[in-house]
Design a protein that fits this description.
It is a single chain. The protein is of the alpha+beta class. The protein is about 25% helix and about 20% strand. It is built from 2 helices and 6 strands; from the N terminus they run ββββββαα. A hairpin with a 3-residue loop joins strand 2 and strand 3.
Length: about 110
């Protein structure tokens, strides 16, 4: 893997992300390469300043779906699948949060 990531392509399911790159990483205590960082380089090719498009889990291609959606490139036929996966991710993350105590405001 190069320091500047891997080039993405135009993919039927995710849309045209050919002007983006991906970088693989994992979270300590979990299998390697579980997440993707999708980003765009500066026009001059430098990578000092990046526009991060998404940082998400690898499963279901969510990093790419989210990137394509944020860049308004998600194919229409993929939109229902994205909405389903997106809502599942939101629900899963909400379930992990501890409710706040109404009196103290702390978790």
């Amino acid at each position: 893997r190069g320091a500047d990531g891997y080039d993405l392509q135009s993919m039927p399911k995710y849309g045209d992300l050919s002007d983006c790159k991906k970088w693989y990483f994992g979270i300590p205590g979990r299998p390697q390469n579980t997440h993707r960082l999708v980003y765009q380089e500066n026009l001059d090719g430098s990578v000092e300043i990046l526009e991060v498009v998404s940082i998400e889990e690898r499963s279901d291609g969510y990093a790419y779906l989210l990137a394509a959606n944020r860049l308004d490139r998600l194919p229409e036929e993929t939109q229902p699948f994205f909405e389903k996966v997106h809502q599942e991710k939101i629900a899963k993350r909400s379930a992990r949060r501890k409710p706040r105590d109404p009196k103290t405001g702390k978790s």
